[in-house]
Design brief:
heterodimer; A: 447 residues; alpha/beta; Rossmann fold; Ubiquitin-like (UB roll); de novo design (two linked rop proteins); 3 domains; five-stranded mixed sheet; four-stranded parallel sheet; 19 helices; 13 strands; 13% strand; B: 366 residues; alpha+beta; Alpha-Beta Plaits; four-stranded antiparallel sheet; 9 helices; 17% strand
Chain lengths: 447, 366
């Protein structure tokens, strides 16, 4: 069976970032098809049928999100593309935008048409200025060819596309913080409700979608929602870009059909090619740094003993006790040379640095957890610090304005849940544990 | 629209928030609020002190809400059932919030001007635990002068954003805001600019802690030694309705009037606040009503009235036992051995003395 390629079908072609090569390989056919032969509602209907789920991390069905969009008379609607990819371990959107920018532009046009937006924004992470320039060049090319601007393809539909670089804050990847930032304000998440679908950008109804989600829409329009839904497994339809990193033989961005066994993804030569020579898999963060970390054995098999699959449901099987989340697809593999305590401290340092400081549990709690983990890692911890971390994580989780609090709490809670003996070893053997390169050698289940 | 909070049902207007509904019922069930400020639009939702459990969303959709919700910005639905003081999870979370807010707070109450009228003090006294588990160093800032009348002591700030909203909504132009991120975020003027406009002083009143203080009043006195008096004057800029804080016959501070929840009723101008400090400038209306539990009311009522009721009742009932065991005709209360009373009333000091006196009164009344 040949593997379905939806986003990466043409990415290997030289010059695909230019309009001409992209157009020659079937590009912008979706814009023609949608604008000339379909009504906006029909496009929404196809996306609904496809069952494609938000690829930014939450996995909310995209068609349903679109159908929630309020449509009051005389009020503009906006589509905003969230290209503020900053999750540690995730780099798929960055790669997709720089490799094949027109795929996103085409998706933006089709999606804007479906939602009735006449101005759409791509909010790009501040560190990626060169991607901003690539996108702006692509937009200029598309505009010159008549796919953007006034009266697209003679249909009377107008669309202006703007690229806005952010300031490089992780929090601006949260959709309401992104909207605040886009409006020129401080990037603080808003209280919800009201949701962006009712009051979003400039208090108008807005849809915020991930780069990868928007990029799939042109394929869905070309081939139909049912064809998309035929790929994948259960409610996890279609393909997903996975950013594989860590101690793998072949790290990189892969487009996998959802439902691929995790075992196959790690060890098959077609994908990551296994763990680097002479080493064994110890733990995996399966969906970007904010999802719970899992020991290798738990990742490959669910609690019921079945093979775990790369799908939203299978990865979440067993809840947080034995499962994790698909997240944004940042697959970080760690072999037995990885110190879980140091890794957890590193993650918590990130969340401490990136907390916006608006609501108290996250503002104070992330800093506290970081300091306690720093103490444990550097040989000054005590046994009650472990329970303290669990308790603080519990008091942050679910009590914050936006999911950053949860994202900061989950990795720490899960690391302690699955690797408690390693934390204890750090506390009871501080001299040994603080030696450079020292790693816990106790009982571990490696694969 | 009917809403039930802690098993008490109340009828409210549509659009009311849970917190407003709870305040209508009374202070016993009203959730604490550290950032929400009714006179300021868009305030609330940040401190998470007012999180409550919604066990039934509405009459139509009686499912419980999965997470705790901030009661200050969540509007009630018809038939909503809310648990505040009766829910273990809510109380546990609130303990956590107190701990988080105090994590980087200096606890310098003994030298803080706000002590005695500090919302964070009240909040941690009512909902917190006695000890912190925080062993690390606290973050600190240098003090900043925001113009001639206001001092900012950022170390004490809990980032409620009230002063930012005040500057946005009350004054013409905002020149201060929040800089930086996370636990190093700070309230600041851009490049230490002075806040200079007629209504800037109101940021002092809205600050729940001692982060923004009145430089004309700094270190002048403790709030419980002063006497608040309502007064007004004809002011061109504001309503002129203020509270004067007297020490002896000297006005040492002027603030806006506040309601039961510590919220400003009428914002006042800087002339009233900083310059009119003579009784002759004002028409006195009468003493300000201060809640009985407040430390501000200490020394302002008769001694008997602050006797803890339980001690009085305990003493009275135990006296009764003593009384019954003895020949009543022989009893002379004033000759009872003093040790007896010491055993009756646990705490020494003011309340114990008052307790003895109350027993005497009780006996003499008989």
């Amino acid at each position: 069976m040949s593997l379905p390629k939806i986003l990466t079908a043409h990415t290997h072609l030289p010059g695909i970032e230019t309009f001409d090569v992209y157009r020659k390989n079937g590009g912008y056919a979706a814009v023609e098809k949608a604008i000339k032969t379909m009504t906006p509602d029909e496009v929404v209907e196809e996306v609904k049928k496809s069952g494609v789920r938000g690829r930014g991390g939450a996995g909310f069905p995209m068609g349903m999100k679109w159908s929630f969009l309020a449509k009051p008379e005389g009020v503009p609607r906006y589509l905003v593309c969230n290209a503020d990819e900053s999750e540690p371990g995730t780099f798929k959107d960055h790669w997709l935008m720089k490799t094949i920018p027109h795929l996103l532009i085409e998706g933006m046009i089709v999606s804007s048409y479906a939602l009735g937006a006449n101005a759409s924004y791509i909010y790009v992470r501040g560190e990626l200025m060169y991607v901003v320039r690539i996108l702006e060049k692509a937009i200029a090319e598309a505009k010159a060819a008549g796919f953007l601007g006034k009266n697209i393809l003679g249909s009377g539909y107008d669309l202006e596309l703007y690229v806005q670089p952010g300031g490089g804050a992780y929090i601006c990847g949260e959709e309401t913080a992104l909207l605040e930032s886009l409006e020129g304000k401080r990037g603080n998440p808003r209280n919800k409700p009201p949701f962006p679908a009712v009051k979003g950008l400039y208090q108008c109804p807005t849809v915020v979608n991930n780069v990868e989600s928007i990029s799939t829409t042109s394929w869905i329009v070309n081939n139909g929602g049912d064809a998309y839904a035929a790929i994948g497994i259960g409610r996890s339809t279609g393909t997903k870009l996975i950013s594989a990193s860590g101690h793998l033989k072949k790290p990189g961005v892969y487009e996998i059909p959802l439902g691929l066994p995790v075992q196959e993804f790690i060890y098959s030569d077609e994908w990551c090619g296994g763990i680097r020579d002479g080493h064994h898999l110890k733990a995996v963060v399966a969906g970007g740094s904010s999802v719970p970390i899992l020991p290798a054995a738990m990742l490959l098999k669910t609690a019921a003993g079945e093979d775990r699959l790369m799908s939203y449901e299978s990865l979440a099987d067993g809840g947080f006790a034995t499962g994790t989340m698909m997240g944004s697809g940042g697959f970080i593999a760690m072999d037995e040379t990885t110190c879980i305590v140091r890794n957890t401290w590193n993650f918590s340092r990130f969340y401490h640095h990136e907390s916006c400081g608006q609501c108290s549990p996250c503002r104070e709690g992330t800093g506290w957890m970081e300091k306690v983990l720093h103490r444990i890692e550097h040989g000054h911890g005590s046994m009650h610090d472990i329970d303290l971390l669990v308790d603080v994580a519990k008091k942050i989780e679910g009590n914050t304005i936006c999911p950053l609090g949860d994202a900061a709490a989950w990795p720490i809670a899960s690391a302690i849940r699955h690797f408690r003996d390693e934390f204890e070893w750090h506390i009871t053997n501080p001299q040994e544990a603080t030696r450079p390169g020292a790693v816990f050698k106790g009982h571990m289940e490696l694969v | 629209m009917k809403v039930t909070i802690d098993n008490i049902t109340i009828e409210v207007e549509p659009g009311t928030t849970i917190l407003q509904a709870a305040r209508k019922i009374g202070p016993e069930v009203a959730p604490p609020a550290m950032c929400y400020y009714e006179p300021l639009k868009a305030s609330g939702g940040k401190c998470r002190a007012c999180l409550v459990k919604v066990t039934a969303g509405s009459e139509k959709d009686p499912r419980p809400m999965p997470k705790l919700v901030p009661s200050c910005i969540t509007q009630v639905q018809d038939g909503m059932i809310v648990e505040n003081t009766v829910n273990e999870q809510v109380l546990e979370t609130r303990k956590g919030i107190v701990e988080f807010l105090l994590l980087n707070h200096p606890l310098d109450c003994p030298i803080c001007d706000q002590a005695g009228e500090c919302h964070l003090q009240d909040f941690s006294f009512q909902h917190g635990v006695q000890q912190t588990r925080y062993e690390e160093e606290r973050r600190t800032f240098e003090k900043q002068d925001l113009g001639p009348n206001i001092q900012l002591h950022m170390t004490r700030c809990i980032l409620c954003y009230r002063c930012v909203f005040t500057a946005d909504q009350i004054t013409g132009k905002r020149v201060h805001g929040v800089l930086n991120r996370g636990d190093h975020a700070e309230i600041s003027t851009y490049i230490e600019k002075a806040i200079d406009n007629d209504f800037s002083g109101n940021v002092i009143d809205v600050c729940p802690v001692g982060a923004l203080t009145d430089k004309t009043y700094r270190f002048k006195n403790r709030v419980w030694f002063t006497k608040p008096v309502d007064a007004h004057c004809d002011c061109e800029k504001c309503s002129g309705k203020v509270t004067l804080w007297y020490r002896g016959d000297e006005v040492i501070r002027v603030t806006a009037r506040k309601n039961q929840w510590g919220e400003v009723l009428d914002f006042i101008c800087n002339t009233c606040r900083f310059e009119r400090k003579n009784t002759a400038d004002w028409t006195i209306e009468g003493p300000t009503k201060v809640a009985r539990h407040s430390v501000i009311s200490a020394n302002k009522y008769g001694a008997n009235k602050i006797v803890p009721e339980f001690a009085r009742r305990l003493a009275a009932s135990q006296y009764k036992d003593v009384h019954e065991a003895r020949d009543t005709s022989q009893l002379n209360i004033k000759q009872l051995p003093e040790e007896r009373f010491k055993a009756l009333i646990p705490p020494a000091g003011e309340s114990a003395v008052a307790g003895i006196r109350s027993i005497q009164n009780w006996a003499e009344d008989k």
